Amino acid sequence: MAKDSMVTSGTGLHSVEDSGDCGSLDTMPLQKYLARAGIDSRRKCENHIRAGRVSVDGSIVTEMGVRVIPGVNEVLFDGSPVVLGDEKVVLMLNKPAGHVTTMSDEWGRPTAADLVPCDKYPGLFAVGRLDQDTTGLLLFTNDGELCQRLLHPTHHVDKTYEALVSGIPSEDQLNELRKGGLIIANRPIQPAEVEMASCDRKKNRAMLRITIHEGRKRQVRKMCKAIHHPVIHLHRCSFGPLVLGGLPEGEWRALSPEELSALRAVL
Ligand code: URA
């Protein structure tokens, strides 16, 4: 098989005979793709490939001749996604406490944007917001249309939080949150799923798991305050079908193709 006869597909590397589209305009040599994405010169990108620093769809590539399809194949350099400038991307950040959800802050506070690769993906912005002291899953994208749809009230994307609250709420109080109707900022809240994950009678605090279907400002804190159990710490563990999992605090990762499809499926 000729050296330049490998092409990649969403399911991995296969030969031209399998794909039949090696000459298609949609594919481009891997080293050219890397250079176009600003990783390095084409020659140096060849060296990076030979050094085993580049993977395509999960397989390390060390030989020349592999071609990729922009937007279809997942190319990683040293484990980080490589995308072309105009490509849409969605990232998940595990936001630490103390970072405000803005792209820059007039008071010089640390921002969530400081933690995501804005240089590499120009036009990134946060999908919604988390309070300064809330930790957990925050999405960033450069896809304005997707962002609008995710935040649009008609789509009711579920958001799940772990809320450590002061005191131990009774079932009646939790039912107040479950059935909805409490007035917050002059409007009734919608029903929420609420369960007590654990409680510590010695410390007099409880961990609640709360899923809300709307996205009002400081909503979970206000809900807990309304039942007289103020939040001590708040953490978002999921957004729609996406879960934070083991992503370390302060770190980000690009969504996988499966996660992107699952996200689009809820819209
Ligand atoms: N609800 C809150 O009260 N704060 C957040 O950061 C997110 C949801």
Q: Can you walk me through this structure?
A:
This protein has 267 residues and is an alpha+beta fold. The strands form 4 sheets. Strands 9, 10, 11, 12, 15, 16, 17, 18 and 19 form a 9-stranded mixed sheet that branches. α2 crosses α3. The longest helix has 9 residues. The chain is elongated and about 65 Å long. The site of uracil has 8 residues, from α6.
Which structural category fits the helices and strands?
A: alpha+beta
Q: How many angstroms does the end-to-end distance come to?
A: 44 Å
Q: What is the number of helical segments per DSSP (H or I, 4+ residues)?
A: 7
Helix content: 10-25%
* Main sheet attributes: strand count, strand direction, barrel closure: 9 strands, mixed
Spell out the key features of this protein.
4-stranded mixed β-sheet; 7 helices; 30% strand; binds uracil; elongated; 267 residues; 19 strands; alpha+beta; 20% helix; disordered N terminus; single chain; 9-stranded mixed β-sheet
